[in-house]
Specification:
Elements lengths: L6 E5 L4 H12 L3 E6 L2 H13 L3 E6 L5 H15 L4 E4 L16 H29 L2 E6 L13 H21 L4 E8 L5 H8 L2 H9 L9 H12 L10 E4 L9
Parallel strand pairs: 1-2, 1-4, 2-3, 4-5, 5-6, 6-7
Helix pairs in contact: 1-2, 1-8, 3-4, 4-5
Length: 255
């Protein structure tokens, strides 16, 4: 198994791509900590993992809160004795996030709190433990929009994902010498409830996005998680500071 006995904390693990990640990581032998703002959703993922024969536990976590982030990491240590992987998957994309000229300050601050501060806080408490161990993998979920401008803007979300790329590079340089690798994944549009709920309501937005992707379809959650599996495993022991694009080719398509 690729992740045998590795302890993996997955934020936002109660649904969408996070739940898929928890299931796939557990199938590869990981002991999974499901960090989720909804205890009920987190428990649901744990049940799914254990029903499939895996190991998992849940901890109620608002990643934007320092005490919760500290408790999340401590839960992993108390339950499994270590932390090998921090998979910063939790993120929000509010419908009210538009251009800077018409996005409410409260929406901007909320996106930054979850998408950027949440990654900062998880790393703040996980990395010292990994340094003590002499090994660890930080996996940050960014986005292809961090690499491209968008004619239908979501400026808070886009800015937050750009910040994650910069932070990932800084972490890679700082902690690589201590055996802690930091990498980012830049997914294209993926069939998660977060995206699909929006696009189902807007057929024109869906048509435009599909037309721009050479594959003609949205990604599947497991196609992103497969990249995360690589980054969590020892197969990627010399991959550090990378921004890995998994988007079906949308970011290389010009017309």
């Amino acid at each position: 198994m690729r992740l045998a006995d590795k302890v993996c904390v997955i934020t936002g693990g109660g649904g969408g791509m996070g739940r898929v990640a928890a299931l796939m990581f557990a199938q590869e032998g990981a002991k999974v900590v499901v960090a989720e703002v909804s205890q009920e959703a987190g428990d649901g993922t744990v049940q799914a993992v254990t029903d499939a024969g895996g190991q998992a536990s849940a901890v109620e976590t608002d990643v934007s809160k320092e005490d919760d982030a500290r408790a999340m990491v401590q839960h992993a240590i108390d339950t499994y004795g270590r932390i090998d992987v921090l998979y910063n998957n939790a993120g929000i994309m509010p419908a009210a996030d538009h251009s800077v000229v018409d996005t409410d300050v409260a929406i901007w601050d909320k996106v930054m709190a979850v998408n950027v501060r949440g990654v900062f806080l998880g790393c703040k408490f996980a990395i010292p433990r990994m340094v003590e161990q002499g090994s660890g993998s930080i996996i940050n979920i960014a986005s292809f929009v961090a690499l491209l401008g968008c004619s239908v803007p979501q400026d808070a979300y886009t800015s937050s994902k750009g910040a994650i790329l910069s932070l990932t590079r800084s972490l890679a340089v700082q902690f690589g010498p201590n055996g802690v690798r930091s990498n980012a994944i830049c997914p294209g549009p993926v069939e998660t409830p977060l995206l699909m709920d929006w696009l189902v309501k807007d057929e024109e937005a869906k048509r435009i996005r599909l037309a721009r992707n050479p594959t003609g379809r949205f990604g599947k959650p497991e196609e992103i998680v497969n990249m995360a599996l690589y980054l969590a495993s020892d197969e990627s022991r010399w991959t550090n500071g990378a921004s890995l694009v998994v988007d079906g080719g949308i970011s290389v398509n010009y017309f």
